[in-house]
Structure formats: C-alpha cells, structure tokens
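Chapter summary example.
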Amino acid sequence: MDMPGWNGRLLRVDLTKGKAVPQEYDASFAKTFLGGRGFAVKILWDETKPNVNPLSPENRLIFAAGPLTAFPLPSSGKLLVAAKSPLTGGYGDGNLGTHATVQMRRAGYDAIVTKGKASKPTILNVYNDRTEFVDARDYWGIGSFQTERRLKKEYGTSVGVVTIGQAGENLVKFANVVSQEGRAGGRPGMGAVMGSKNLKAIVFRGTKTIPSKNPEAMKRMGLEAYREVLAKPLFGFWKRQGTMATLEWSQENCVLPTQNFQEGVFEKADEIGGFAMEKIKISNRGCPHCNMTCGNVVEDTEKLPSELDYENVAMLGSNIKIGDLREIATLNRLADDYGIDTISLGNVIGFMMEASEKRLVDYRIEWGDFEKAKVLAEDIAFKRGIGALLAEGVRSVSEKVGNNTVKWAMQIKGLEVSGYDCHTTPGMALSFATCSVGAHHKDAWVINWEVATGRESYGEAKVEKVIELQRLRGGVFECFTTCRLPWVEIGFGLDWYPKFLKAATGVNMTMNDLFTVADRTFTLIRAFWVREYATVWSKGMDSPPARWFDEPVQDGPFKGTTLNREKYDRMLQLYYSKRGWDDRGIPTKKKLKKLGLGDVALELGRQIKLAT
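The structure predicted for these 612 residues follows.
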C-alpha cells in the first residue's frame, strides 16, 4: 500500500489463539487520526464494549507510533501504549522513549493491537513479517532490567524491547511498561493490562526502510533541525540538568508537592534539586533520535545506576519528605525494575504516611522513613500485606480507610496527581482535572505560563491556554508520536512539524488542521470516559482534590492560600463551553458531528442523553 510516512499496517495479535495477522488500514484512517494516541483511542472505542473489565482478555493493549516516529528527526523515538485503564476505568495511555518504536516501524508496522490472554507467560518476537510466541515461563517473576538484558543477549543488542516487571505480573493497578532500564510509560496501569494477558515482553526487530514521500527533504530538514536544537541558548543547561531544573523552580514558586501535597515548599529542596544532582551525576541516557538527552543517571545508595527526572524526585522525595537524593534514586530504581509508576508510588506512600500519622491505619510509617518506604515499594510490587491494598491506587485506598480521607487522596478520576501542588495555581488544577487520562501534567503543563502571567486569575485567557496546550502536547505530539521537550524546554520551533509531516507523507496540514485532529482525538477520549461512567457522570469528575480547596498551605509566601471553588467552577464551565461540551462536560451532538464523529454521537446517545 502506497502510504508514505505511514507503513499502512497494524499487527493484530490474539494471545488466546496464538495468532498474529498483519492488517492494512486506509489513507482516510491515517489522515483522520494521524497515529499514536489518535489510532489508539479510535481502536479502543470501536473494539472494547462498555464496562469491559480492563484486566479481562477482551481489553485491547495497543502499542502505537505516528507518521514522524523513528525518522531521523529531533526526539522522534517515542512509543505510545494504551488500553482501558484498570486504575481509573477510563481511557489510559502513556508514552516512552524506546528503540522498540524504531524497530517496530522498521518491521513494517505502525501499531500492534493485542487481545486475549496467553495460556502461559509469553514473549512476542516480532521480526519483520514473522511473529513468534515464545514461552516466557523462565522470565516470569524477574524484574524488567534483567528481562531486557537476557532478551538482548538472546536476540541481539540492536533489538527493541518493552517489558513488565513483577508489578505488572501481579496486576498492580499502576504498573507500567518499561524499556531500556528506566524508560517507562503507561501510568494508568498499562503494565497490569500487559500482565493480565500473560505477556511478559515484546521484542522488535526490523530491517525495512520506513517509507517517506520526500526522502531528500527529510534528510535535509532533519540535519537542519538537529543543528537548530544544538544552537538553542538553553541547550547547554538542559544537557546538564534536564527536567531536574524544575525542582528548584517549583520550590521557588511554591508548587513543589510536599508532605502529601499539604505544602508547596520543602526544607531540603536544595539537597535534591538539579544542582545537587549534578554533583553525583555519572552519565546521561536518552531516547532514539534525540540529541538533547534528558536522562540523568546517578549512583544510588547501593552503588547502582538510577535515571532521575523531576517527577520521580518530587514524588519520591519532597512529597514523602525524603531529602537524600541517593535514597530517592534507590526508590526510583526499584520502581523502574519492578515496573511501578513512580508518581503513583510516591502518592500512595505519602497517603500512607499521613494516614499513619493521624492513626487512621494500624500500619506505622513516618514521614521521610526511607527504609520503610523501600519495603513498601517491594510489598506493593508483590502485593504483600499492606502493599496489596496500596496496589489498588490511592482512590481505592481512601475509600477503604474512610474517615474522610477521600478529601486528601490526591487523585482525579482515579489517577494520582503528578508533581505540582495547585493550592495557588487554578490553571494547572484545571489542566489536571481535564487531562485525558486523569491527573497528569503531560497534556497541558500550563503552570510555567501561569506563574509568569498571574496565578491569581481564573479567567478566559487561562482557559484558552490550557486548551491550546492540550491541543499541542496531548494532541499533535501524541499523535505524531514524537517528544514535546525540544519545543517545551529549549524553544525548538513548532513550524517545523507541518513541514516534517509534508516531507514524510506528502500531506499538507496547517497547525489549524492539526488542531482539528487533536480536538477529534481529545473529544473521542472524553466520549470514551463518558461511555464508561454514563450512569454516574457529572462535572464532579473534573474536580481537583478537596485538599486544594479546603486546606490552606501553612508555609511559604502563599501561607493561607487555597483554590476558590466558586471561581474554579466558573472556569470549568467556560472550559466546557469552549470545548463544545455541555455543562456536565459531555460533548454535544453538534460538536461530535463537526469533528466527524457522528457515529460516536449515535452510540454515546444510547448510553446517556446528549445535548444537541
């Protein structure tokens, strides 16, 4: 099939039957959804019935790339993994940088769609047009690091591997998918879905050329783009610290999650920030096709390498009041090896520390207790003792503990909040609340702009900025599937991307055209959520944790500050209006039809009454 930029093929894998069949898709599908997240949500909408158990064989687990993935362009080595989430019950996905995405594309596929459940632990070996189902019983029970090392020893160092650790095997609901000993994605439990299918790993090998419309232009523009990245004034500092510089910024601006998001400043922030990291840094790691590598590797307390970034240091550091960077690095390494999301891990441990302090549980763990936190991480991975409860996620834990702990269970739609306290930042609270997967920062990291332009505002400009960033970060980049960090962190020009698309595919799209694809994808994800929660859906699904409204911060220059619930609700309604959704946050028939989702309107209308 002549579809330059895209391979035009998916690999359909039925693990129950042990069959793998390539399937072609048409140009209309490609242009309508582009790839990555767009492909994933369309397949999940079409092929998963409402209320399907996320850990059942009927759920789909999708690995998807986009039309720019794996070309020699800045930071194009991303892979999206998606499924219905066992943690949230809604749409779930995440992306990770991995050689697996390059090898998958070179094998001739733009996505792999798995269903069913293998009769025994299984590894998929995908080599061009051949797929083998390999007995993985000897791999079951070992960590993600050793799994990948053994597979590379068997199949060659150039293969791409995605795998799960023990957390995925044991169906921990915030288990993720891991690659390259520290690259992880799929916060809402994609690793648990993989484990539920008895799928330990996928090995990708490909020798084909990824087709492009204008190979010479791709080569020329790629070289120019890489040179532009290197020439950016912020490049040198970025190479030194990567996202770790955010820790000092968060402390300075009083948004660093501290003591289970009770505060926005931490007394030991200087000891765990970017400059402290530089003193113990031993190397950098990065994703394929990236020349601004952001993985800062340090030695942990056990003299083992651990790859740090801001989110895992904030959540496993200040949020649980650990002020030793090597201790944080140890927790991070263990989480990556077990295949546990570090953000959710820091959140559930923080919840347990607070519950222990308030004597609401029998378990005792004090703030900053590294040794007990380390034991808890292992207990969660293996679902032992109190770890079995925490493995369900903080929403479930709070419901079981009771005593109004739901008010300080730091989650939205079941997904634990990532590393920004929002007592003083209503725009970021809105971003968390309306994110496509739950309380995650990746769709719209508006907090930097918000702090610079006025955090006190609940106005229209802030709502429009959240939507703009959701279109770019959660839409364009997730569908292309490339990394947003060149643009976000060092100012690489957005105008490159329509040009890349044209050279790769021959398709001429303006940024407004790409925003339409982004809105279509985002709205379809919202429809997926509404379909799953039809009987209980309300605007309350888009409400931040009560702590930010009801409990003022007690430290720092914003002492006494909370979010204003009335103003937030008005801001949320304005957001809905600008999205073309009704006052419950449900897409209207008109909006769905305008985006080419008329069939979605018909099906969703059977579940819940839609506004016209």
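To summarize the output: The chain has 26 helices and 17 strands.
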